[in-house]
Amino acid sequence: MNCKWCHSQEATKSLEKAYWELPDGSRAVEMTHVPSIHCPSCEMIYIQEDIIDEIEDQMMLIDTNKLPDVFSYHQLMDQPKLLKKNYFKF
């Protein structure tokens, strides 16, 4: 896999932890097992844009008050949606 930052061919998919601010700004949470890219050449760990968009959309569609302070990516994606789509995304 090609690293977005240093263009090394050694980047691999990994599951990492990430910290996220809820859309209403009320608190930050820790999310575990987030699909990520890790590059051993430059030591960069990053989340691809499509996964970021997926997380951001899900956060807009669920009741974030029901989220604990620490949860996994899959727990977030399994939350019941209150809306069918993110009407705030342009």
TrEMBL record:
The positions making up the signal sequence are: none
What top-level branch of life does the organism fall under? Answer: Bacteria
- NCBIfam families, per this entry? YgiT_finger, YokU_near_AblA
What protein name is recorded for this chain? YokU family protein
Q: Say which species the protein is native to.
A: Evansella tamaricis
